[in-house]
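A common beginner's mistake is to predict each chain separately and then try to dock the pieces by hand. The better habit, illustrated here, is to supply every component at once so that their relative placement is modeled jointly.
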Amino acid sequence: MSAEQLAELSDLFVVAAVLLYVVAMVGFAIELAFGRARPGKAGAAERAEVKQPVTVGAASSGEDAGTVSEAPVAASADAPVPAPPGGAVKAGTVALVLAWLGWAANLGAIVTRGLAVDRWPWGNMYEFVVAICFAAVTAFLGTQLRHNVRFLGGFVMVTAALGLGLAVKVFYTTAGPVVPALNSYWIAIHVTAAIISSGLLTLAGVSGVLYLVRGDGMSRLPSRADLEKVAHRAIVFAFPLWTFAVIAGALWADRAWGRYWGWDPKEVWSFITWVAYAAYLHAKVTAGWRGKAATIVQLVAFGCLLFNLIGVNIFISGLHSYADVP
Amino acid sequence: MSVQELEKEQAPKQGGFGPLAWLRWAWRTLTSMKTALILLFLLALGSVPGSLVPQRGVEPDKVAKLYEQSPALAEWYDRFQLFEVFTSTWFAAVYLLLFTSLIGCIIPRTATYLRELRRKPPAAPKHLSRLPHSASFESGLTVEEAARRLRKLRFRVVTGDGWVSAEKGYLRETGNLFFHVALLGILLAIGAGSLYGYRGNVLVVEGDGFANTVAAYDRFMPGNQVSAESLQPFSFTLSKFKVAYQVAGDKRGQALDYSAHLKVNDTPSAPTRDFELKVNEPLEVDGTQMYLIGNGYAPVFKVTDGKGQVAFEGPVPCLIEQKTTMTSGCVVKVPDAQPSQLGFLLRFLPTSVPLTNGDYASAFPGELNPEVKLLGAFSGDLGVRSGKPQSVYELAEPEVLKKLKPLVMGSAAPKPLAVGQSLELPDGLGKLEFTGVKQWITLQTSYDPGRFPALVAAATAVIAIALSLMIRRRRVFVRTSGGRVDVGGLTRTEGSAAGFAEEFSDIVKALSAGEKDVR
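With all components supplied together, the output reads:
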């Protein structure tokens, strides 16, 4: 296939991914809408609360043989949540399959674009946003493989579909070479780390928004405790990666611009984002800041991340102006 | 921890508020997590203007422009040090407070950590089934064997009468402490770099040389502790500069590669070596780096004056007016011309094409059909010898320019000159000849002794933060009695219970595995 054909194929893949994500979103929405409402504090919160009183050597006397769990199976798995009706579950399963297909199309778009331009396919804003959407969906599907987070599906899908739509409508750039400054193996290291952490942080951001939208009472939306857990875990994973991305960026800047840190607008905003997520992690372990306050801090940090990824490229000129936004 | 903090904060209030109590209160408030949080917010917030207001260190030209356009606003910005946010007093106040707070947090935590390292895991609780993770199985497992197997899983183990207590995950706090110390290290490295390092910018034309001395730089920015003798004595000549451009498609004209061929002498006595300087591939001489940061055209002119003598000959670096086509503006000053000084304003077109309106423009940034278009030729005193500082990219100050006598002006100017062509000035005042094209490059030298320490500290920070966030502190207890084995486990890290379930079931598997190991 020629480079032009590959580039066209890549564009088709993006459109396919958007469509699949939208249909998957509808499926996930059906599952939520027809599923049962849950109380505000389900799952993790209960378990966490149980943990406290037993931690220090329980002092009651006598062996209680009544609670012997069977064989080497780990006890106390997820607390049983009432099962929703069958149809809703089916819709959710179909949605999950469609989400995987959309993921594959998204991956296909990235790979064919990379082959068409014969370089790492994140040299401009369009390619970058497509890759971040892919990373966010990967973060969701990857988590789904190990823990049941299907309740987030619809919201991740709508975010990814909107992201791809934005990329196609606003940032689209035809496949082509990049400026010499981007011709470095550092693009593979620095930008990849930024993409993966942004994907994870998007997952956390989606959970954070849902946390605030949903009250403390009964709701069809996932419980606050679950949302908080997903967000926290994504950030715990993404924060070191983001730290690495920033430092890899500094190493690249040292190669390309003659200083490792020069307060270029992009550098300023990565620093702000980093500090904001650090504040979130500290808030999580500070009395009176857990829960809602920590979630707000997280969303502020996510806002900084989004501004850094998109706003800085459009509104502020600096050394990172490779965005190629038409 | 937070509970302890609260207690500590309340404690001194019971006694009187002497100066010592105030000090203690201030220190505790400063080192509390809440203060750290607020300082983190302030640090983030304080950085914002650094990206919105032009910074002197990054874009001095934009700062100057702002002073011209709205002097009142610029004055106010300057009053709050907004043109140099990251070296301002208030920004320093925030990060110094934050780092003090950090130190105040690290020291006691390190002490606690060292004590914890020496402390043995606590005795096993009686009822293991009440722990968040528990399991039981029938087995002849002895306490010694259970301890051995847990040790093999790298647990720290204590045994007692019919019980084993094991703990693991101490690296979490190690990572946490190292991360925060590494942040201090980065700050110190940056500080050292700005004291003992220097940066310099210089423009070099093809065929010319450069020797690393303060005088050779167009702009030199030394740290406080840098002296002229401390510069590494290397030198080089720029033999050739090449640019590759995209020639077809809708990205036509985009630069693909820059490369500058240098002949380098690392020291005055060292042998000459060839070096290809590229973007992303700086020249390195003993800790000093030289980077390729810009390029442009320098057409070569020869000016013969009214007396028939060559008054000027050489390349003239031109400023880029339009990046996509490399259309550049050039100024040629000939103060040595007789009977009167001469000055020329020219436009260099690397790929000159005629337009329908009779004008000429550049169609491509590469040098395919280089021509220069005369915008104006003047005679009269250029004011070069007035002693006032002059810009080489400006013919003269506006008031001086008004007094010059225009010889040839824009619209009346003839067709652009191709290489080898010349233009006769009226009244026999002289001749301008366009003899060839050279290119110039701008280079940045930087020497930063804090570079390597900063890298070490940054790498430590990344590894340490990963350890600190990924590892969980966990405890496993085993009780054996009459062929029945109870195992219980818990994590001491918030939000990691679900992840631990898997590991716990593996531990139980390892403990209940194959009787053959049980002696």
